[in-house]
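Please fill in the sequence for the structure shown.

STRUCTURE ENCODING:
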């Protein structure tokens, strides 16, 4: 494993790359060091060529004397061309290798994270910063270290060459370079701080940009005509960030220009200092021309290259801090194991369970106790925020920081293995996932332990009411869903919902949970879906969760949640007879049905589904 739970520091900019690929790291290092030495070598080759050419022109040397300098110059040019082409190829291969090596590790780490980190906005932002670009950042931070090495070798090579000619000029350039480096360093840090300051503004602007461009929002953009207003808001945020960065860039530009003036002054001083030794013959003309070209190149690199290098190094160091924090996030042991096959239970019990979400003080569940028995149908009802979905998150093991106990056949849920917890239940959530893979894989993913599952997938399709939709698809179950692939097909909202239900049917888990996946439907449509789910789940234990009561008659026992407590429980008829909270909720919704003219239609649908129950049950 390349990525480990440790504090990452500056040396890891090198170590991480060598852990990923010692070969590629070594190739890059050798190539960059040779590239940094080349300007110094070129000084002597250019000087020899100029001196020899002048000697040949002045009849002081034979024409054959210039052959070797020309061969050396040609060799340098050929090397530069070939190494450029070769390194482009190596870079492409390295990018692919780093991605293949690091991204699976990052995906596995994310899969092992405790669920609370996914719902925590702070750690969710951290995950977004670290995970998508891990391979690029590790490769680029090593490249920045090589850039520093390249720059140091480049400067030392030229300064040492100068030292062999006029030692005090070399020392003067070395000392004078210090303020230039300080200016560049401060400018780089200011640029990075500006980027960090503008990150929140950029996120808001990017969100507005996504809304203005995304396919998902195109209908509402067209209907409500809000594109102009959002475009105005986007423009304001974008312009604010642009002006802020421009202000910083202007300040850095002026200071860098000052650094440029200093380096230009150094170049002039060097040139003037070398004129006298040249006229006196202590430095030949070829060396003078070659050195001056190198000094002017050095001044340009000092005034601009160092600034960008320091800025990017600061950015990579911040990434290492984020990577350290990410790697220390708590993990769930054996989180990536498959669900246990043939998991069963007779009794699931909540005993005095209290729960609040991490980082909050509000008690979502307050000493809640109830029993779920195998083979029965249950319904949890209550207003939004009553704690219904939280109960499913505890049953499925997403949170373990609750007080009290949850028992499965007398065993604490905390003592069950991740494989057993996964094998216990299947859930259709309100915000069910839409996987842009084939329809077959969308359903079969719920039972990965089964290798040949075509018959079971076809059965799940039939029971979920997807047969007609599948029949219309060109490639049937092998049709890719979504618009990522050219042949992909997007389903309607109701069809996606049936795909989610088919996944639950496909799962062999003994407990099936329907957690308000029909919230976007009208009450009659919701009632129809719940009836369908109840019919195809015969022999299984089901939990229906809803704040609307059209489906509660299907349940053997109804639990009414209010203020984090179970305030009532019983069958529909029992709770209606009590004339308590459930009675008031049911009558309030019944009045709405009556006022909306839905009562007769609801009765019709109930009759239709009652007549169809036996046929559907037989199909199961």
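FILLED IN BY: designer on duty
SEQUENCE:
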């Amino acid at each position: 494993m390349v990525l480990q739970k440790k504090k990452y520091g500056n040396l890891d900019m090198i170590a991480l790359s060598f852990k990923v690929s010692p070969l590629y790291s070594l190739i890059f290092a050798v190539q960059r060091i040779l590239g940094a030495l080349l300007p110094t070598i070129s000084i002597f080759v250019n000087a020899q060529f100029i001196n020899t050419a002048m000697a040949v022109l002045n009849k002081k040397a034979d024409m054959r004397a210039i052959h070797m300098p020309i061969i050396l110059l040609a060799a340098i040019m050929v090397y530069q061309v070939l190494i450029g082409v070769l390194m482009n190829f190596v870079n492409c291969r390295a990018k692919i290798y780093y991605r293949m090596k690091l991204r699976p590790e990052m995906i596995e780490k994310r899969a092992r994270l405790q669920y609370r980190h996914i719902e925590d906005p702070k750690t969710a932002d951290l995950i977004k910063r670290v995970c998508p670009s891990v391979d690029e950042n590790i490769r680029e931070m090593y490249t920045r270290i090589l850039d520093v090495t390249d720059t140091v070798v480049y400067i030392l090579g030229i300064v040492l060459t100068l030292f062999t000619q006029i030692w005090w000029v070399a020392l003067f350039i070395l000392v004078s370079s210090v303020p230039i480096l300080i200016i560049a360093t401060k400018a780089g840090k200011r640029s990075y701080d500006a980027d960090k300051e503008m990150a929140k503004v950029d996120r808001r602007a990017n969100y507005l940009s996504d809304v203005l461009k995304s396919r998902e929002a195109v209908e509402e953009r067209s209907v409500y005509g809000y594109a102009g207003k959002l475009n105005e808001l986007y423009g304001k945020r974008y312009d604010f960030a642009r002006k802020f960065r421009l202000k910083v860039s202007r300040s850095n530009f002026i200071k860098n220009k000052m650094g440029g003036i200093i380096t230009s002054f150094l170049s002039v001083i060097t040139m003037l200092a070398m004129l006298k030794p040249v006229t006196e013959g202590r430095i030949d003309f070829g060396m003078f021309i070659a050195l001056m070209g190198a000094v002017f190149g050095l001044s340009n690199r000092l005034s601009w290259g160092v600034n960008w290098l320091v800025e990017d190094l600061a950015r990579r160091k911040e990434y290492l801090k984020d990577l350290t924090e990410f790697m220390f996030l708590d993990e769930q042991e054996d989180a990536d194991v498959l669900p246990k096959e043939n998991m069963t239970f007779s009794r699931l019990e909540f005993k005095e369970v209290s729960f609040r979400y991490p980082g909050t003080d509000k008690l979502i569940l307050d000493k809640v106790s109830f029993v779920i028995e195998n083979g029965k149908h249950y319904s949890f009802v209550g207003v939004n925020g009553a704690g219904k979905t939280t109960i499913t998150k505890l049953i499925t093991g997403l949170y373990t920081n609750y007080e009290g106990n949850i028992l499965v056949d007398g065993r604490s849920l905390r003592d069950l293995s991740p494989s057993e917890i996964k094998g216990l239940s299947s859930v259709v959530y309100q915000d069910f996932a839409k996987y842009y893979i084939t329809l077959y894989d969308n359903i079969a993913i719920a039972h990965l332990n089964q290798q040949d599952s075509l018959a079971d997938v076809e059965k799940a399709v039939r029971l979920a009411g997807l047969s007609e939709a599948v029949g219309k698809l060109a490639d049937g179950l092998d049709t890719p869903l979504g618009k990522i692939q050219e042949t992909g097909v997007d389903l309607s909202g109701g069809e996606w919902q049936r795909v989610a239900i088919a996944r639950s049917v496909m799962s062999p888990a003994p407990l099936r949970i329907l957690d308000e996946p029909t919230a976007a439907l009208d009450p009659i449509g919701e009632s129809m879906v719940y009836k369908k789910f109840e019919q195809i789940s015969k022999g299984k234990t089901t939990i229906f969760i809803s704040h609307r009561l059209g489906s509660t008659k299907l349940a053997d026992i109804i639990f009414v949640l209010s203020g984090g407590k179970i305030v009532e429980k019983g069958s529909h008829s029992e709770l209606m007879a009590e004339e308590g909270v459930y009675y008031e909720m049911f009558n309030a919704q019944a009045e709405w049905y009556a006022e909306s003219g839905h009562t007769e239609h609801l009765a019709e649908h109930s009759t239709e589904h009652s007549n169809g129950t036996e046929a559907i049950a037989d199909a199961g």
